[in-house]
Design goal:
Number of strands of chain B: 9
Strand content of chain B: 15-25%
CATH class of the largest domain in chain B: Mainly Alpha
Distance between the termini of chain B: 30 Å
CATH class of the largest domain in chain A: Mainly Alpha
Strand content of chain A: 15-25%
Helix content of chain A: 40-55%
Strand order of the largest sheet of chain B: 2-3-7-6
CATH topology of the largest domain in chain B: Butyryl-CoA Dehydrogenase, subunit A, domain 3
Strand order of the largest sheet of chain A: 1-4-5-8
Oligomer: heterodimer
CATH superfamily of the largest domain in chain A: Butyryl-CoA Dehydrogenase, subunit A, domain 3
Shape of chain A: globular
Number of domains of chain B: 3
CATH topology of the largest domain in chain A: Butyryl-CoA Dehydrogenase, subunit A, domain 3
Largest sheet of chain B: 4 strands, antiparallel
Number of helices of chain B: 11
Shape of chain B: globular
C-alpha cells in the first residue's frame, strides 16, 4: 500500500502543473480567444484523447497519467480537454476498438480536433433501463441499412452532426442482446427529425430523434452485425474513473462551507449550527470514501485484475452526493433557497438553484441508481436476476 | 500509487482467517461469551505466539515491527468472526508505553504484552463521555515524585481481564498517562454488563491508586499527543473490526436471501431485498477504503491522520448499526431469535458506535479540521 506517486508520475504531474501555471488564467479572465488557444495547446500536448493509442492521434497515456491529468485539470477548473464531448467520452474509444482502419481515419481526427459533435442514440420511448430490448429497426437492403424507429433522451441531438446509433437488425435471436447492431449516422441524413424536450430546469439538452426510412451505408457499421451490444458496453466501460467527479464534488462542498460562513440564521452563522456541521462532515466523509474507492478500484485495474460492478458503488455514492449537496445548500439559504436561479437575489449567482434542478442529468444518465443497485446485487453478490 | 495489499499481507489475512475458522467458529464464540472472562486464554496465547499481539511493536521488545495496515488486516478477520479477545486493548496499552515510555519502561512492560503473558488496556473515558483528551478531568494529586488518583474511569475495555492499565489523568501541568498494575492498592475493576456478549469492559475505580514517577509515561503534562494518538488508534481498531463484522452480517444476509424461498422464488430476487443488500455493499466497501487510508496515515504519523480516522469512525458509527438492523429485518422472524447469529452482529454494532468517539464527536472533528 502506497499512496505516493512514483518519480515518473511526479514528473508528469509537475509538467501538467507547469502547463497550467503558464496557460490557465484565473476563472474570471477566460474569454473566447483564450478558449480557442487553450484547445489548440492541449491538442498539441496530445492531452485530447490522452488515453488513446498514439497511432490514431491520441496521447498513449498510462492509466496513472490519465488520472493525474484529470485530477490536476479538475483541481484548477480548467476548460475541457477537447470539445467533442461524447466523441471523446465513448464514441471515439468504441471506434478505436472496433472501427476499421478507414473508419478510424475518417472519424478520429475530427473528434480530436473538436470539429464534430456526436450524440448517442440508445434509449427509446419504451426502452430505458432495459436497453437491450430496443426496437428501432435496421433492415439490410443491398449496401444500406434502412432505419425506422425512434430514440429519446438523446442529449445534444439538436447540435450534433453525427449519432452513434443502436438498432435491431435481427428480431429472431434467442438472446435479445444478440440482434443489436451499431451504426454511425450523419444527423443530416434524409428522414431524421429532431424534437427537443424541455427539462425541468427550463432548458433543452436532450431530444427525441425520429428515423423514417433513413439509409445508412453498410460502411458506417461499427463492428459486426449483431455485435452492437459489445461495442456499446465496452465503450461505456471507458468512463470508469471517478477522479474528476470527486474533485468537482469536493469543490462544491468547499463552496457550501463558504455559503454557510456567509449566512446568518436567527442571529447565528449557519457554519456554527451543529446540524449543518454534521451534514457537511457526513458529505465530506462520503466524498473521501468515493475518492478512495476510486483509487482502490484503480489499483485492481493497474494490477490487471478484472473490474466487476465495483464502479456502480461510486456511481451510487455520486448520485446521492449530487442530490445532497444541492439540497443542503438550499436549506442553508433558507427562504432564498426558494428563489429561481434567475432572481438577482439568489445567492451565489443561482448556482445551487441550478444544481438542485439539474442533478438528474448525471443521476439518471448512464443507468439510474436502482439499476446500479441491481448490478451490484446480481454481479457482486450473485443474487438471482429478476 | 498502490492501494492494495502486499503478498505478505494477503498471506497474513489467510493465516488469521484459517486460524479463526478452525479454532473459534461462532458456536465457540457463543460458549466463550458465557464465561466470566469472555475469552479463551489458550487461543490468546497461541495468537501471541503467532505474533499477532505484538504485530505493531518493535522487534527488540518481542514484537514483529509491522504497522497499523497489517494490524487492520488481522482485526478485520477477528471482527468477521466476532473473535473475543483482549487484542485491541492490549495493543493500545502497548502503543502508549512504546510511544511515551522511556527505555526502562519499554523494557519492563512491552515484552510481556507482546507475548501475551500480560494483558493490557487503556483507561481514557470518564463520566463526561468525551473521548477528546480535553475531556480528561480525573485529577492526579502530587504524592512524592508521582501522583495519587481518586476517581473513576469508564468503559475500560477488558478491565476485568487486564494485568496492566494505562490511565489518563490530569496533573496541574496537563494531561498525563501512567501505568497501574493489577492488584495494586486502591485499584478495583468492576465489570459493565454489555449488550455485546463478545466484548468485555468495566469501570476502573481508583481510590488512592499510586502512580510513582517510574510508572509515569513521559514528563508530567506531556501526554496530550500520545492520548490523542491512542484515541485515533483505538478508533481505527474499532473500525477495522467493524469492517469485518459488517461484511459478515452482509454475507449472512446474502446467503439467506439466496436460499429462503417465498412466493415460489428466493427472496433475493425481489428488489425490496436486493437493493438494501446493494446499499450494504456500498457502505462496507466505502468503510473499507476509509479504514485502509487511515491506517496507512497512522503508520506514517501523517498530520492528515486524525481527519482520516474521524471520517472512518464517523462512517462506521452510522453504517454498521444500520447494517445490523437491516440484517435482522431481511431475515424476518428468524433474525430475531437467540439461536440465529444475526443478533450477534447487531450487538457488536452497539459496541462499535460509541467506542473511541461516536458519529457526533467525529463529525464535529471533521468539520473543525475541515476549516469550519
Amino acid at each position: 500500500m502506497d499512496f505516493d506517486l512514483t518519480p515518473e508520475e511526479k514528473a508528469f504531474r509537475d509538467e501538467v502543473r507547469a502547463f497550467l501555471d503558464a496557460n490557465l488564467p484565473p476563472e474570471g479572465q477566460r474569454d473566447a480567444a483564450f478558449g480557442r488557444d487553450w484547445q489548440r495547446k492541449v491538442r498539441e500536448k496530445r492531452w485530447v484523447g490522452f488515453s488513446w493509442p498514439r497511432e490514431v492521434g491520441g496521447g498513449g497515456g498510462t492509466i496513472m497519467q490519465q488520472v493525474i491529468l484529470k485530477e490536476e485539470m479538475a483541481r484548477r477548473k480548467a476548460p475541457p480537454l477537447g470539445t467533442s464531448f461524447m466523441g471523446l467520452a465513448w464514441v471515439g474509444p468504441a471506434i478505436v476498438e472496433y472501427g476499421t482502419p478507414e473508419q478510424k481515419r475518417r472519424f478520429i481526427p475530427d473528434i480530436l480536433d473538436g470539429k464534430v459533435q456526436w450524440c448517442t442514440g440508445y434509449s427509446e420511448p419504451d426502452v430505458g433501463s432495459d436497453l437491450a430490448s430496443l426496437r428501432c429497426r435496421g433492415v439490410r437492403e443491398g449496401d444500406y441499412y434502412v432505419v425506422n424507429g425512434q430514440k429519446i433522451w438523446t442529449s445534444v441531438a439538436m447540435w450534433a452532426q453525427w449519432i452513434i446509433l443502436l438498432v435491431r437488425t435481427d428480431f429472431e435471436t434467442a438472446s435479445k442482446h444478440a440482434g443489436i447492431t451499431c451504426l454511425l449516422v450523419p444527423m443530416d441524413s434524409p428522414g431524421i427529425t429532431v424534437r427537443p424536450i424541455r427539462n425541468m430546469e427550463g432548458g433543452a439538452i436532450f431530444a427525441e430523434v425520429f428515423f423514417d426510412g433513413v439509409r445508412v451505408p453498410v460502411g458506417n457499421r461499427l463492428g459486426d452485425e449483431g455485435q452492437g451490444w459489445q461495442v456499446t458496453v465496452s465503450a461505456l466501460a471507458h468512463e470508469r474513473s471517478s477522479i474528476a467527479e470527486v474533485t468537482s464534488l469536493a469543490r462544491q462542498l468547499e463552496r457550501i462551507k463558504e455559503l454557510a460562513r456567509g449566512t446568518k440564521r436567527a442571529g447565528r452563522l449557519t457554519s456554527e449550527d451543529p446540524a449543518v456541521r454534521t451534514r457537511i462532515a457526513r458529505i465530506d466523509a462520503k466524498i473521501e470514501a468515493m475518492r478512495l474507492n476510486g483509487m482502490r478500484f484503480l489499483t485492481w485495474q493497474l494490477r490487471g485484475e478484472p473490474l466487476g460492478a465495483e464502479t456502480s458503488v461510486n456511481k451510487l455514492l455520486r448520485a446521492a452526493l449530487e442530490i445532497e449537496l444541492g439540497e443542503l445548500a438550499l436549506e442553508i439559504e433558507g427562504s432564498l433557497g426558494a428563489l429561481a436561479k434567475s432572481d438577482p437575489d439568489a445567492p451565489d449567482g443561482g448556482h445551487w438553484q441550478r444544481m438542485a434542478l439539474s442533478w438528474p442529468e448525471v443521476v439518471i444518465g448512464g443507468g439510474t441508481p436502482n439499476i446500479q443497485r441491481n448490478i451490484i446485487a446480481e454481479r457482486v453478490l450473485g443474487l438471482p436476476k429478476d | 500509487m498502490d492501494f492494495g495489499f502486499s503478498e505478505e499481507q494477503e498471506l497474513l489475512r489467510a493465516e488469521v482467517r484459517k486460524f479463526l475458522d478452525q479454532n473459534c467458529p461462532l458456536e465457540e464464540v457463543r460458549k466463550l461469551a458465557e464465561t466470566p472472562a469472555g475469552f479463551s486464554r489458550h487461543l490468546w496465547e497461541r495468537m501471541a505466539e503467532l505474533g499477532w499481539v505484538g504485530l505493531t511493536l518493535p522487534d527488540e521488545h518481542g514484537g514483529v515491527g509491522l504497522g497499523w495496515v497489517d494490524l487492520a488486516v488481522v482485526l478485520e478477520e477477528t471482527g468477521r468472526t466476532l473473535f473475543p479477545s483482549p487484542l485491541v486493548a492490549t495493543v493500545l496499552a502497548a502503543t502508549a508505553i512504546d510511544r511515551a515510555g522511556d527505555a526502562a519502561q519499554r523494557a519492563r512492560w512491552l515484552p510481556a504484552l507482546a507475548c501475551g503473558t500480560s494483558i493490557g488496556t487503556v483507561a481514557l473515558l470518564e463520566g463526561s463521555d468525551d473521548p477528546d483528551p480535553a475531556g480528561i478531568a480525573l485529577a492526579g494529586s502530587s504524592e512524592g515524585s508521582g501522583f495519587a488518583l481518586h476517581g473513576e474511569k469508564l468503559f475500560v475495555t477488558d478491565a476485568q481481564n487486564a494485568d496492566l492499565f494505562v490511565v489518563a489523568f490530569r496533573a496541574p501541568q496537563g494531561p498525563c498517562l501512567g501505568v497501574i498494575e493489577r492488584g495494586a492498592p486502591g485499584v478495583a475493576a468492576l465489570p459493565h454488563e454489555l449488550m455485546d456478549p463478545t466484548r468485555r469492559a468495566g469501570r476502573l475505580v481508583l481510590d488512592g491508586a499510586r502512580i510513582p514517577r517510574e510508572a509515569l509515561l513521559g514528563s508530567p503534562g506531556a501526554a496530550l499527543a500520545t492520548t490523542q494518538r491512542l484515541c485515533d488508534c483505538g478508533a481505527t481498531a474499532v473500525v477495522a473490526e467493524a469492517v469485518g463484522a459488517a461484511e459478515a452480517a452482509l454475507a449472512l444476509s446474502v446467503d439467506y436471501a439466496k436460499t429462503r424461498i417465498q412466493f415460489g422464488q428466493p427472496i433475493g430476487r425481489f428488489q425490496g431485498v436486493k437493493h438494501p443488500l446493494a446499499e450494504m455493499v456500498v457502505e462496507v466497501e466505502s468503510l473499507r477504503s476509509l479504514l485502509y487510508y487511515a491506517a496507512w496515515l497512522l503508520d506514517r504519523d501523517a498530520p492528515e491522520a486524525p481527519l482520516a480516522v474521524s471520517r472512518a469512525k464517523a462512517f462506521a458509527a452510522e453504517c454498521f448499526p444500520r447494517i445490523g438492523i437491516d440484517c435482522i429485518q431481511l431475515h424476518g422472524a428468524i433474525g430475531y431469535t437467540w439461536e440465529y447469529d444475526a443478533q450477534l452482529y447487531l450487538k457488536r454494532a452497539k459496541w462499535t458506535r460509541p467506542a473511541f468517539g461516536d458519529a457526533a464527536y467525529h463529525h464535529e472533528r471533521i468539520a473543525r479540521l475541515g476549516g469550519l
